[in-house]
Amino acid sequence: AQKVTQAQTEISVVEKEDVTLDCVYETRDTTYYLFWYKQPPSGELVFLIRRNSFDEQNEISGRYSWNFQKSTSSFNFTITASQVVDSAVYFCALSEALYNQGGKLIFGQGTELSVKP
Amino acid sequence: DSGVTQTPKHLITATGQRVTLRCSPRSGDLSVYWYQQSLDQGLQFLIQYYNGEERAKGNILERFSAQQFPDLHSELNLSSLELGDSALYFCASSVESGFANEKLFFGSGTQLSVL
Known about the structure:
The structure holds 2 protein chains of 2 kinds.
Chain A (H helix, E strand, L loop, with lengths): L2 E3 L4 E5 L4 E3 L2 E3 L5 E8 L6 E7 L6 E3 L2 E6 L4 E6 L8 E9 L9 E2 L3 E6 L1
Parallel strand pairs in A: 2-12
Antiparallel strand pairs in A: 1-4, 3-9, 5-6, 5-10, 7-8, 8-9, 10-11, 10-12
Chain B lengths: L4 E3 L2 E4 L5 E6 L6 E8 L3 E9 L2 E5 L6 E5 L5 E5 L8 E8 L10 E2 L3 E5 L1
């Protein structure tokens, strides 16, 4: 069965610290997509990144980087030199191509990141 | 601003009542998705519509129903409300029919409180 696990419920860091949010997924599909979304205190969900199962290249976008490892079924997210504005709940999500389930996202439980000044 | 509009932002009602949540997708998007976010269940996919037709169904209760209208806006109807239906309901939209790689744009949600 498909599942996304974010074992870290809450993380608290001090500004400028690096922080890694873990995400482990389960799927039987060979073609799937992984996403990260950010939910700031205002409530809306904001797309951060999408990665397909055939592309294991790591990605960097400014202070954000993502490490995808199929061997461990993990898609971890690192924020370098964290800032107070990074405080939010971060969700990892999985979308499977099998049975053409469309854009149905399976979300993890989320990790609440608190960055203190 | 994602371009997805949800109304109302907050809704307070009583058990047994019926409510309608409304969603306007981004201009040009044909697919609309409904998600429920609650403390115990997390973010759960409810249902997807593409160009007026139901495309995929998730953990949607029989008391809940949705539709997408010709102008592509969507409504989620929740009836015989129970305390446990209190949650944040998100609408999202995407351009295509919901391929697995599609990026979803989420609205700000409707916070439903059932008292």
